Amino acid sequence: MKKVPVGVSARHIHLSQEHIEILFGKGYELKVLKDLSQPGQYAAEETVAVVGPKGRFDKVRILGPARSKTQLEISRTDSYALGIPAPVRESGDIAGTPGVKIIGPAGEVEIEEGVIVAARHIHFHTEDAKKWGIEDKQKLRVRVIGERPLIFEDVIARVSDQFALDMHIDTDEANAAGVKNGGEAIILDE
């Protein structure tokens, strides 16, 4: 049986160093609140506000370290509340996506693109993928174990030496399955 831990991703933002400095001040560096499941990734102490045409979210957690491009990851429910038609995309694939206004304690910035609903995916360390015969970008069927178990289709395999085994779903998906952070999923054979 191919068991995988489940990580539930609430709305969060990845910022470029340029935007960190606009929002928090020149030379500012994020402070680590807690480490995340992926090596070198962390939830920062800092938060920002994001403002869309219909709504606003305060205290949106920043995930570090800084990225090359700023990206806001929200759920479909969040996209309705903000009034932003965010497409489902893999992290980093932001070309042609909507933008948003971001407000920090030292300034604000309006990004032209970068708002997505993250596609559900599983991070595999290269060795785990090899052991299970899974290739990068392969689409998988995965049963999430929860109060209301669900089978998710088209779960994207992301394989790298830099990853630790973990399935990432957003809060809408987690709520639908009745699963919490640290839950369990099983990769189903095709």
Automatic annotation (TrEMBL):
What is the E.C. number?
Answer: 2.3.1.222
Q: Which domain of life is it from?
A: Bacteria
Recorded catalytic reaction(s): these are: propanoyl-CoA + phosphate = propanoyl phosphate + CoA
Q: Which UniProt keywords apply?
A: Acyltransferase, Metal-binding, Transferase, Zinc
Cite the annotated pathway: Polyol metabolism; 1,2-propanediol degradation
Cofactors named for this entry: Zn(2+)
Q: Name one GO molecular function term.
A: metal ion binding
UniProt key word RNA-binding: no
Pfam families, alphabetically?
PTAC
What family name appears in the similarity comment?
A: Belongs to the PduL family.
The task this protein performs is described as: Involved in 1,2-propanediol (1,2-PD) degradation by catalyzing the conversion of propanoyl-CoA to propanoyl-phosphate.
Which NCBIfam families does the entry link to? PRK15070.1
| Name of the protein in its database record | Phosphate propanoyltransferase
Q: What is the lineage of its organism?
A: Bacteria, Bacillati, Bacillota, Bacilli, Bacillales
